[in-house]
Amino acid sequence: MVLTLEPIRWLIGAGGEVLVVIMLVAMALFAMSLERLFYWQFTHRRARRVLIDAWIRRRDHSSWSALTLREVWTRELIARLRLPLPWLKLLIAVCPLLGLLGTVTGMIQVFDSLALTESNQARAMADGVAQATLPTLCGMAVAVVGLLFVTRLEQIIRREDQRLHDRMARAVEDSHA
């Protein structure tokens, strides 16, 4: 299998080096997002079951120390689910800024090339502006998709937090019935 760098060369030609950086940030963002989905589907659900079973096995469920312990356990489990959120939000915030950087550097290149050729070709200017705005478009697109994922993940975490408290309370009631 031969790895060709032609798509990367085309990407650099179409939008500049900043577009490659946006692509790398997007890859990191989506890899972290997929990792969170897999974590939630497999690891978290198993850990939740272990936590509920440990809570059921306890003899004391109603004292202040037992309720505090339950709260600590649930917060630790939810904190593990929430762990990469600051990094995901950082990557989302960086994407539009990288896009803006690509646009500014692209516009500087357009104006430099127009100044060097000393021609007022509208077509060359339009092509350069189109090439310069591509990084902003890509940065915004990656940020919007990432923001949709993070919003959904935060919604899942809030719902999971509530469900975990409910399940632990119900598990004790069911075990005493």
Summarize the structure in words:
With 177 residues, the chain is mainly alpha-helical. The chain is built from five helices and no strands. The protein is rod-shaped, with a radius of gyration of 25 Å. The mean pLDDT is 86. It is a multi-pass membrane protein. It comes from Salinicola lusitanus. Belongs to the exbB/tolQ family.
Name some characteristics of this structure.
177 residues, mainly alpha, 89% helix, 0% strand, transport, MotA/TolQ/ExbB proton channel family protein, membrane, transmembrane
Q: State the secondary-structure class.
A: mainly alpha
Q: How many DSSP E strands?
A: 0
- Largest sheet, described in full? none
The count of helical stretches stands at 5
What is this entry, summarized?
With 177 residues, the chain is mainly α. It is 89% helix and 0% strand.
